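INTERNAL AUDIT FORM
Audit reference: QA-55
Scope: verify that the stored structure record matches its stored sequence.
Auditor: D.O.
Record contents follow.
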Amino acid sequence: MPPRAIRDATAEPRWVQWTLVGFALAFMTLFLFIPLATVFVEAFRKGIAVYLASITEPDALSAIRLTLIAAGISVPLNLAFGIAAAWAIAKFEFRGRNVLLTLIDLPFSVSPVIAGLIYVLVFGLQGWFGEWLRDHDLKIIFAVPGIVLATVFVTFPFVARELIPLMQAQGIEQEEAARVLGAGGWQMFRRVTLPNVRWALLYGVILCNARAMGEFGAVSVVSGHIRGQTNTMPLHIEIAYNEYQFAAAFAVASLLAGLALVTLAAKYVVEQRVRREMRDSLQQGDQPE
């Protein structure tokens, strides 16, 4: 079919196009742009001095520090797990492969609150290991380890889910060629597999980090809401807002909103780089030898 016929078959009247674009912009303005702008307006409503005081007071600094700790631990763990799981699922055939693939999607189908309750039932004082943990003076629930565990659970699919489809599409031909040439397992992964998925890997890490810093449900269940100790940034925002400390709540919320904007910017840069590399590879493939 000629290209013009294809364009005519898929083209819509101009008024339909503008209607769809207008509807999309109106929807985004109502549910995205206005709420986002409101966060920053409310954060700076009482001036920069109040804003700085709100994000530098001890409880806020503790919440920021704990959020960074949880993300700093969970993201590398999920990075290692995501690479290992994607490599195993995409490059090897083994019994239980589909089960592993299904389990990776589990946090997407289970409410974060339920995930938090599971950790309470397992590691809480009345849980399966509660007595043993108490006897050995170990505390997981209502402490930093529980927050890290909950964060790891809700974020572990992101890296793996970005890598698996790409690795499956790439196949195993390049790895087999590297093996024939004498490359070992680690050398094959470092020089063949990893360079081919580096941008998808970075994309997954960006999403994983954003979710780790913004997680509320699972962390809320296992944290205990102890001021200055187990409150992350989302929990600090909730407490400040419920206590009518609106300036403090919106000030910390603006930090999370800023993180979201930085995440979107990084995501856009990665997507553009991937598109550019795909376009360059297609152009090189079309060139005559």
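Auditor finding: record pair retrieved intact. The chain is about 80% helix and 0% strand.
Action required: none
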